Amino acid sequence: MAAFGTLNGPAKLNAVSSLLDKLAQDLESNKLPQNERDAALEELKIYGRDPRNSDPIFTRRGIETLTKHAFNNPSTTTSRNALRVLCNALLLKPETRQIFVDIVPEAKACSQLKNDNRDDEFLISRLIFLTTYGTNIDLQKLIDQHGLAASVVGNLARHAERSSVPRSNGSQADPMEEMALVETLKLVFNVTQFCKQRVESFSAGIPHIITLLRNISPPSAQKPLDPPFASLINALMNLKFNGKDVEKAFYPDDEPTGVADSLVDLLDRSTKAYGDSELEHTVTPLVCVISMLYEHAPAPVREAMQSKLLPTDEDRQGVLGQGDNLPARLLRNSTNPLTPELRNAILHLLFDMSDKNAEIFVRNVGYGFASGFLFQNNIPVPEMSKPGDDRGAGAEGAGGRAFNPITGQFLDRENLPDLPDMTDAEKEREAERLFVLFERIKQLGVMSVQNPVEQAVQEGRFQELDDDEDDDDEDEKGNSSKTKG
């Protein structure tokens, strides 16, 4: 006799059909002993993990039979066994999701989600999460008429409360605790993504998510956004960061920068830990959440965030973006061709931290990093300025110390090449080349500039050479020079 759940091929198909027939008949007769009913569901769950030769599970009759056992049976054990089979079915066969939506008792499902039980939370949250893809499920109805948002917020509150209780030495966390939390957070993201008109129904969950972010021990340094951290961040993505309770959670009176510090530290570790293949989908949501946090933050919190995310005077000892601290890594990723979403998120964050002012933005990150973002977003590019000039993007840092507006490096720290002085003829050719270049730039309208040769004439710094001086140059250097700037 074959071991429990090990059949394959036609034998497996016959076993699955027989099990579903037994469960369907039991719905009418209710004569099957509970231990036999639960054993049948357990065997069906094992067979259903592989859709091959498990076809009866994925039919309307199969889904309907399992749904009735899941929501109409008074036994919690039977209910959860049936829910597990349903979860596997909806995951493996997307076409079963609409069947489930058509027959599921919505009120009972949302009511069961209120139970203070991690198995129920995990299973019901996963089922509703799966039905947000490829079905006509009415999420607004679930929220307005069946209390979906209230049930989800209640589960988040319980997770937050448990995370605040110190664990005794040596005690292990219940694995279902984290699994249920992750499913709840995934559900928050999808519902707020696909039912934006009811996003504010989940705002009450924000303080609980923040509590969890601060109480849960961080994952390993190699994967700082491993579960549940990535899910906690994603759950905040679509929520509204306003309202007194939300602001109190983000900027508590006793430690207003605490949440911001935690998120920035998480960003610091994440940009070190993940390569290009993971940065895009893993770190981008974190940058977006930090941007939203900054947008609503009071001035002291904004200043603290700027001090950690924008280049400092120490960074300007070299070319910006070439160091190994967080601002340098952000700047490098802002031009990373392999992470377009992350690149865009970083530049928006840095632009917001520059008061959404193009001149301050260029001053903060250098024209080299800023120009592409400004062009892409149709923001006028500020006029480049000379060191010591207060116009345009500015080229002076704190204390009036001049820096290169292109690279952001302090001018007195630049290593300039030791080249011989140009001859007058070389200067003339360079002036002519620059004159043509700047005239083309003006005609293209790329940026507002004044031709430096034209400016030199206006300021009296343009000198015509005498004929004698010209002859001397020919005799001595074999070149003729008409101008000297």
Automatic annotation (TrEMBL):
Residues 450-485 are annotated as: Disordered. Residues 465-476 have a biased composition (Acidic residues). One of its GO terms (biological process) is G protein-coupled receptor signaling pathway. Keywords: Chaperone, Guanine-nucleotide releasing factor. One of its GO terms (cellular component) is cytoplasm. The keyword Chaperone applies. The keyword Chaperone applies. GO terms for molecular function: G-protein alpha-subunit binding; guanyl-nucleotide exchange factor activity. It holds the Pfam family Ric8. Belongs to the synembryn family. This is Guanine nucleotide exchange factor.
